[in-house]
Automatic annotation (TrEMBL):
Name the UniProt record assigns to this protein: phosphorylase kinase
Subunit note: Hexadecamer of 4 heterotetramers, each composed of alpha, beta, gamma, and delta subunits. Alpha (PHKA1 or PHKA2) and beta (PHKB) are regulatory subunits, gamma (PHKG1 or PHKG2) is the catalytic subunit, and delta is calmodulin.
Domain Protein kinase, residue spans: 23-290
EC number: 2.7.11.19
Organism of derivation: Mizuhopecten yessoensis
Length: 386
């Protein structure tokens, strides 16, 4: 993007002097409905960050929409401050507010979204999935213990840092729950919505929802990581929502043939219709899938180790003489004319003399070649006939 074009899309410097005094905006990284994300550089330190520029003006939206965007952003800032310090939650470094824009400066995750990474690799191994899911559950557990529900967990809202560690981001739909409070607002991404979120938006006589909706979304994410496709998908959205309401999914595709029972059991414990029976974040972290197998301590046996070492030394010593071994002999030569091969000939001669050597008379004028004549001798035949 040309510099002039980039500058034309940025807020005027006169309207955001505080931000421009400390940061220099760079290229665009992403765009939302009312926001844009850019890379920026802190002038004092030279460190790179990501700035989310949120438009709260009334130029492109109605007054009530602008006010709602502003209130949602302020709520997100407060929640991010509550979650500050966790290694798997995006860190809010700085923020600025003007009459028309709000600037949120985050740590920069150069590896991008988990969604983009999954698009490249299609599926993840059980080992890699275990690492990702543990980090995600640790982040969600931290959030839930502060009475916060995220409500929009999906691979697009999970970032990866330089070391491929997970960073939970985008708390735009997150909210703090009061004791025994139940939510009734329909928000989130269709493929990751829990059944109770859909139910409360369609029926009047059903209870609201809470933190278990995040655990349902985690089950959807884990399923997607392992097989490369979501558990609930249909080209007709109403059919997809019906599948979610019935928890209609299966492990029947060929991609699941090589997956062990552990991750399947964890997914099945998360994609449960009844939110009261769904695993919590703390319970999920205690699932056997995350338990590493501890090998028993084996007593050191010196004699056995020494014997193995001697065998290894002898083996490598003998390997020195492999170059002196004769080249391999084809089966055709062995069948047609084995005596033409020197080593085979010596072997045959040696075996023959070991077997018949006592018949051979050890005198100077003895012809040993006569021992191997194959044609019958007439004098032997005449002697036998007489």
């Amino acid at each position: 993007m040309a510099k002039d074009e980039m500058d034309s899309e940025l807020p005027a410097q006169e309207a955001a002097k505080g931000f421009y005094a400390r940061y220099e905006p760079k290229e665009q990284l992403g765009r939302g409905v009312s926001s844009v994300v850019r890379r920026c550089v802190e002038k004092e330190t030279g460190k790179e960050y990501a700035v989310k520029i949120i438009d709260i003006s009334e130029e492109k939206q109605q007054q009530y929409q602008a006010e709602q965007t502003k209130q949602d952003t302020i709520r997100e800032i407060n929640i991010l401050k509550m979650c500050s310090g966790h290694k798997h939650i995006i860190e809010l470094h700085d923020s600025f507010e003007t009459n028309t824009f709000i600037f949120l400066v985050f740590e920069l995750c150069k590896q991008g979204e988990l969604f983009d990474y999954l698009t490249q690799v299609v599926t993840m191994s059980e080992k890699r999935t275990r690492i990702v899911m543990r980090q995600l559950l640790e982040a969600v557990d931290f959030v839930h213990k502060k009475d916060i529900v995220h409500r929009d967990l999906k691979p697009e809202n999970i970032l990866l840092d330089d070391n491929m560690n997970l960073k939970l981001s985008d708390f735009g739909f997150a909210t703090v729950l009061s004791p025994k409070e139940e939510l009734t607002e329909l928000c989130g991404t269709p493929g990751y919505l829990a059944p109770e979120v859909l139910a409360v938006s369609m029926y009047d006589d059903v209870p609201g929802y809470g933190q278990p909706v995040d655990m349902w979304a985690i089950g959807v994410i884990m399923y997607t990581l392992l097989c490369g496709a979501p558990p609930f998908w249909h080209r007709k959205q109403m059919q997809m929502l019906r599948m979610i309401m019935q928890a209609n999914y299966q492990f029947g595709s060929p991609e699941w043939d090589d997956i062990s029972q552990g991750p399947k059991d964890l997914i099945a414990s998360l994609l449960v219709l009844d939110p009261a029976k769904r695993l919590t974040s703390s319970e999920a972290l205690q699932h056997p899938y995350f338990k590493r197998e501890v090998k028993p301590v084996v007593k050191f046996q010196a004699k056995k180790k020494f014997r193995a070492a001697v065998i290894c030394v002898n083996f490598f010593f003998r390997m020195r003489f492999f170059k002196n071994n004769p080249p391999p002999i084809s089966g055709e030569v062995m069948n047609n004319n084995p005596y033409s091969v020197k080593n085979v000939r010596k072997l045959i001669d040696g075996c023959a003399f070991k077997m018949y050597g006592h018949w051979v008379k050890k005198v100077d004028n003895q012809n040993r070649a006569a021992l191997f004549e194959h044609a019958p001798r007439n004098d032997w035949k005449e002697h036998h006939d007489s």
